[in-house]
Amino acid sequence: MAALPLLAIRDLTVQFRVDAGWLTAIEGVSIDIAEGDCVGVVGESGSGKSVTALSILRLHDRAATRIPQGSISFQGVDLLKSSDRALRRIRGREIAMIFQDPMSSLNPVLTISEQISETLRQHQDMPEAAARRRAVELLDLVRIPDARRRADDYPHRLSGGMRQRVMIAMAIACRPRLLIADEPTTALDVTIQAQILELLRDLRHELGMSVMLISHDLGVIAEFAQSVVVMYAGRVVEQAPVATLFRRPVHPYTAGLMAAVPKLDGDAARLRTIPGRIPGPQENIRGCRFAPRCDFVQEACRQAPPPLQLAGALHSVRCPPRVVLFGNADG
Ligand SMILES: Nc1ncnc2c1ncn2[C@@H]1O[C@H](COP(=O)(O)OP(=O)(O)O)[C@@H](O)[C@H]1O
Ligand SMILES: [Mg+2]
């Protein structure tokens, strides 16, 4: 029998309070992350990637959020049922998170080493001198050149890429089992983006941690992750190992995302985008939420949301007509 995944999100639905009642931002989301694995979560802006990620550490404003169904099991414990005290212990120490904009998470009046030390002292109760030494080690580990000197800089003295390295240093300071990286390279230019992804890949191997990598860019996910979760309008629409998904995307939305990945050998004119736009959570759509944009839409698609079905051993998809088309092909 396969070992229990490190993180198992099951059938998660998250709603936010609005004037008119409750908006369903994500619905029935299930994602597994195995020990040491990297799972990529991809989808256009507004598809529910961040809502899913923030739910894991319960970082939503509690008063305006409702989780009517689902569970988030981490090392066998349901985080949705955990006390605030237990969650505080897990945050940073067991599960760490980095975001798109490192500046907004860095304190402008503390030096780099002061902020890293603060994290260390908070979670590990480390004396000041030791924390400072460890901070410099961590800056070395994330390959910040001349770390000892850089440690005394304030965040505004660093480039965007270097700031993201500092965020990564803080995130891995307590050797978390799981790192959630929500669009960590979206604000960076392409060369720096590649360097940061490479760094994350090396650290994942060196520290043996699992990574949940969130991106709107399927190219980034393909480079880095072992398996992919494709989200659309708050639902998981397809899920498969990277190679399987690229060999045989089943959902028309996945195929559309793939066509939008620029090919290094191709010309930019080949780059396509999917016509139309993603529906918001307030839009009441009875059937498949992709139906209004789908080239393969059938009458049944507009009647009821398609269930998640197997398209191969480790491959599932929310698109019945095409699954039937591809029948029993293996994943
Ligand atoms: N706090 C909130 N209150 C109301 N709606 C929200 C809130 N956070 C996110 N949403 C909505 O939920 C949907 C998914 O958002 P999000 O997870 O941020 O998308 P992504 O990260 O994939 O771009 C969006 O339509 C967004 O407007
Ligand atoms: Mg987001």
3D structure, described in words:
The chain is an alpha/beta fold and 331 residues long. It has a domain at 249-331. Helix content is 34%, strand content 23%. The protein has helices at residues 49-56, 84-90, 102-105, 112-124, 128-141, 147-150, 160-172, 190-207, 218-224, 242-247, 252-259, 299-303, 320-326, and strands at residues 7-18, 21-33, 38-42, 65-74, 77-78, 95-98, 178-182, 210-215, 227-232, 235-241, 309-312, 315-317. The strands form two sheets. An eight-stranded mixed β-sheet has the order 6-7-8-3-9-10-12-11, with helices on both faces. A hairpin with a 2-residue loop joins strand 9 and strand 10. Helix 4 (112-124) packs across helix 5 (128-141), helix 5 (128-141) packs across helix 7 (160-172) and helix 7 runs parallel beside helix 8. The longest helix is centred in the middle third of the chain and has 18 residues, at 190-207. The structure holds adenosine-5'-diphosphate (ADP) and magnesium ion (MG). Residues 49-50, 182-183 line the site of magnesium ion. Keywords: ATP-binding, Cell membrane, Membrane, Nucleotide-binding, Transport. It comes from Bradyrhizobium lablabi. Residues 9-258 form the ABC transporter domain.
